[in-house]
Known about the structure:
Elements: H1 3-11, H2 15-52, H3 56-90, H4 94-122
Amino acid sequence: MNKANRSSEAASVNLSELLxxxxxxxxxxxxxxxxxxxxxPDHLQALRNAVAGNDADEAARVSHTLKGMLANxxxxxxAASASRxxxxxxxxxxxxxxxxxAAFEKEVQGLLPEMESYLAExxx
Length: 124
């Protein structure tokens, strides 16, 4: 795709769709947190049992599930943080934008190295 096509697509973004996406991200984060709270204790116990029983296959399976659960939360939490910035900016709450920006940067700075690590581990 050339630069002109990308500019044309960017200009045609539907703002109401983007705002709905922000609301969906918040809802998704709430749902992911609910699932995590409900399922994490059982997965953690399964991992403990696998390690205690020297069951490497089960430890790998449960660790993979936990990695996915935690990665989903991290990405969605960063999206929720960006959503908060957007809401504050749209509301003209300039005095709180600095703190919201710092929180967002902290989320993203922690997230990027994790994503790179996951990608490196996934490579053959």
